[in-house]
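Weekly sync, protein design subgroup
Attendees: M.S., D.O., the rotation student, P.L. (late)

Item 1: inverse folding check
M.S. brought a backbone from last month's batch and wanted to see whether the design step gives back something sensible before we order anything. D.O. pointed out we never logged the input encoding, so this time it goes straight into the notes. Structure tokens as presented (184 positions):
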């Protein structure tokens, strides 16, 4: 029994060091955000016209994707019943504040009631736009099968990158935004 404890005591820290150095732990990377490639961030390159939509926002009033023509957009689909979605919301909002005026960041809630989304955000002042997609019509036009899913759309309305899965930190969101801004 003593031999097993010593081995575990040695193997676990070594495994953690290796995982960290290889960037295998969630939120860990040995790359700086500016040097992260689309693959590093979990994005697939695409080139397709982004479907337009008009949805009511959590703040009140409608928003259309087409109203951002000329401005790159990070478009994220999420839902309250998705723990990774809720975990990445602060990262998305922080990036929206950081890139305000250079990019529009929209986090489209799929299927939740306005009241539940309002309760989730509480009295927070959000920098990102939160459109409400109660019937999932916008999600269907983007063929959303899993949440979260993120699209990077250039200023001409072309989807350039798609990511299925959450961001681990705000640095990853910033690196993703830099991908679309560099191409703008």
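Designed sequence read out in the meeting:
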């Amino acid at each position: 029994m003593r031999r097993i404890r010593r081995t575990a005591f040695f193997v676990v820290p070594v495994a953690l060091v290796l995982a960290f150095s290889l960037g295998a732990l969630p939120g860990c990377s040995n790359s700086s955000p500016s040097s992260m490639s689309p693959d590093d961030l979990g994005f697939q390159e695409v080139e397709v016209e982004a479907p337009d939509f008009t949805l009511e926002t959590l703040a009140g009033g409608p928003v259309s994707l087409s109203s951002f023509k000329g401005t790159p957009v990070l478009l994220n689909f999420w839902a309250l019943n998705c723990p990774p979605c809720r975990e990445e919301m602060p990262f998305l909002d922080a990036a929206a504040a950081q890139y305000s005026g250079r990019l529009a960041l929209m986090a489209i809630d799929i299927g939740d009631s306005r009241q539940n989304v309002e309760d989730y955000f509480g009295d927070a002042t959000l920098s990102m736009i939160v459109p409400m997609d109660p019937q999932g019509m916008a999600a269907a036009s983007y063929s959303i099968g899993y949440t979260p899913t993120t699209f990077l759309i250039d200023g001409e309305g072309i989807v350039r990158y798609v990511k299925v899965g959450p961001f681990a930190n705000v640095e990853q969101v910033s690196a993703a935004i830099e991908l679309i801004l560099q191409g703008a």
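Discussion: The chain has two domains: 1-30, 33-183. Residues 33-183 form a domain with the Glutaredoxin fold (CATH 3.40.30.10).
Action: P.L. to compare against the previous round before Friday.
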